[in-house]
Amino acid sequence: MAGVEKVSQGRPDPGTGPDGKDVHPTLPAIPLYAVLMAGGSGTRFWPASRERTPKQLIKLSGQRSLIQETFDRVRPLADPEHILVVTSRAHATAVARHLPELPRDNLLIEPVGRNTAACAGLAAPTIHARHPKAAIALFPADHKIVDWAGWQTLIEGAWRLIASTDAVITFGLTPTRPETGYGYIRVGAPIDHSALPGLCAADAFVEKPDLERARQFLESGRHLWNSGVFVLRVRTLMVLISEHLPELSAGLHKIAWASPGPSRQRVMRRVYPGLPSVSIDKGIMEKAALLVAPANVGWSDVGSWSALGDVLSPDEQGNVVVGPAMCVNSAGCIVYSSGPLVTMLEVSDLIVVQTSDAILVCPKSRAQDVRLVVDQLRAQGKTRLL
User: Fold this and answer.
1) Helix (H, G, I), strand (E, B), or coil: what is residue 146?
2) Residue 329: half-sphere exposure toward Cβ, Cα within 13 Å
3) What three-state secondary structure class fits 274?
4) Separation between Cα atoms, residue 42 and residue 371, nearest integer Å
5) What is the pTM of this model?
6) 327 is in which domain, residue-wise?
7) Least C-beta-crowded within 10 Å: which of 121, 307, 329, 353?
């Protein structure tokens, strides 16, 4: 994100200092469980993102995939036993391979994708059975954060706050441009709490705006980009699902009450495909009383190729390069190559993506429309490229 200093994203120490002592000696008594929601496909990240290799399994920089980086970020606050990953059957083997530290029982597999409300709801009974008073932090598995230490401090602050309340906390990012690819949160009255400076009531969630509204949001100073991250007690989450999505709650109860093993799997295969497909934002959080804290930590949902400029350092001409590429007298370009050398000469504001079997070239201003290529490929029956 513009104006945020890029910092190291090496693997963090999992909760202990050089002397072996706990670096968080005063953390709340209730445990924190992290849920990584890894069911997305990332069609706007084609051709690097495919149905078999979705965005969360891609290495955009360094040696770690997005899901591995997300796992690494929460390790200082939650041991692997307290980290759950919800993913699809098609990606379960790959996710397990990317996260060898994850306990087998903590990988929850959806028969089909039913959006993030079902994803979060599937994890909640498992956590509640282990610790009914636990805090739960819901994270998309395919986001990037520049300032890991700052992000961990925010999550810890939210954890402290909900240890003594039934609050629901989300995080918003100060807009740096009139972005039409993000949802927004309109902030309300300030709330004084030492654990989370700048905390406010969340007045409303706003869907992705057109350019004119995005400009108005930027000028108002009252709108933040929606991070899609939520921290609350697990019992609070289950109550909210029951109140606002009763059909989803009923289906999840059928699965949770089935005997573990083959019986539960049969119930899962029968019930889960019929659950409502709705995001947790729209289905639950828009209707709940939320608090929002500013989180200017270099966040991006990496929802399109143009977003790489928010989280990777550009060269002097504003080009962002991943993999073997060369930009000569070129400016403002995004270049990604998984193999062959890509050379850019006398061009500007282009996205060029090279994989083993496909090349994407488009203006940076049309990055949100890459999904139209995916739609066209599907319509033409070229499933091998999806």
Assistant:
1) coil
2) 2
3) helix
4) 9
5) 0.88
6) 314-385
7) 329
- pLDDT, one tens digit per residue, over 317-336 is 999 999 999 999 999 999 99
| pLDDT score of 78 | 95
Q: How far apart are CA 161 and CA 372, in angstroms?
A: 43
Residue 187 tokens read as: 């902030």
| Listed residues 302, 331, 357: the one ending a domain | 302
Partnered with residue 36 across adjacent β-strands are 85, 139
Residue 17 has pLDDT above 50, yes or no: no
Q: 221: left (phi > 0), else alpha (psi -120 to 50), else beta?
A: left
Question: How far is it, in rounded angstroms, from Cα 110 to Cα 122?
Answer: 9
In a domain, 7, yes or no: no
Phi, psi at residue 136, to the nearest 5°?
A: -135, 130
Chain Cα centroid distance, residue 332:
26
| Cα 4 from chain centre | 19
Q: Are 141 and 37 in contact (CB under 8 A)?
A: yes
CA-nearest of 78, 41, 75, 82 to 58 is 41
Q: In which residue are the tokens 């087998």 written? A: 104
SS3 of residue 225 by DSSP: strand
If you search the block for the tokens 């190729």, which residue do you land on?
305
Does residue 2 belong to any structural domain of this protein?
Answer: no
- Asked if 180 and 215 touch (Cβ cutoff 8 Å), the reply is no
